[in-house]
């Protein structure tokens, strides 16, 4: 067999491989383009009247890592705790409410409602209070935790004698949705003129 014949046999699958490579490249480029354009989704097909609205904030939230830290912030009773926890109700302003749709229909965002509830539960612990609002908040947080179903594994602390002391979660990294994008969205939404025309 001559060199030209061997080369010809060797190159026969090349057009198929090049075609497959071209198709694969096109699919990858389309996927990247779609992901880049996924920062917001089109909610223009919702009227925002009655039950015709999206179930989630119309933004794309990329995944981020959060490593649990043993922080001194957001304590229970120390002097700095009060302004830190109060900030969760007032930043972003209006308890994190947004106005969506052509008429600026108001909506709450679950993340900010849950932060508010943690603040109410903290105050209840300090004051020894147990009212409907606190009960509502305990149930809301319980169900939100179930909904999130975070399955990140926490290493268990075991002594040399084999005694299990539990898990504190410190240093464990969780995969989360980027909450800073929610703050950014709410901040921009509240700067929109729809807030001035509907208040």
From TrEMBL:
Keyword Metal-binding: no
InterPro entries xrefs: UstYa-like
Single GO term (MF): oxidoreductase activity
UniProt keywords, alphabetically: Membrane, Oxidoreductase, Transmembrane, Transmembrane helix
Pathway linked to the protein: Mycotoxin biosynthesis
GO biological process, any: mycotoxin biosynthetic process
Membrane-spanning ranges: 14-32
Family label: Belongs to the ustYa family.
PANTHER family per the UniProt record, alphabetical: TAT PATHWAY SIGNAL SEQUENCE, YALI0B05434P
Listed name of the protein: Oxidase ustYa
Organism listed in the record: Heliocybe sulcata
């Amino acid at each position: 067999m001559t060199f030209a014949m061997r080369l010809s046999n060797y190159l026969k699958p090349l057009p198929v491989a090049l075609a497959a490579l071209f198709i694969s490249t096109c699919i990858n480029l389309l996927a990247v383009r779609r992901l880049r354009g996924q920062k917001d989704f089109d909610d223009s097909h919702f009227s925002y009247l009655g039950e015709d609205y999206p179930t989630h904030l119309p933004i794309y939230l990329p995944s981020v890592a959060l490593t649990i830290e043993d922080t001194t912030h957001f304590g229970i009773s120390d002097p700095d705790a009060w302004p830190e926890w109060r900030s969760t109700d007032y930043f972003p302003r209006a308890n994190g409410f947004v106005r969506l749709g052509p008429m600026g229909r108001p909506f709450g965002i679950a993340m900010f409602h849950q932060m508010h509830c943690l603040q109410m539960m903290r105050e209840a612990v300090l004051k020894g209070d147990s009212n409907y609002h606190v009960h509502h908040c305990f149930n809301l947080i319980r169900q939100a935790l179930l909904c999130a179903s975070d399955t990140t594994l926490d290493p268990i602390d075991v002594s040399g004698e084999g005694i299990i002391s539990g898990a504190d979660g410190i240093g464990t990294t969780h995969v989360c949705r980027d909450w800073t994008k929610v703050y950014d969205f709410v901040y921009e939404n509240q700067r929109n003129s729809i807030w001035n025309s509907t208040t």
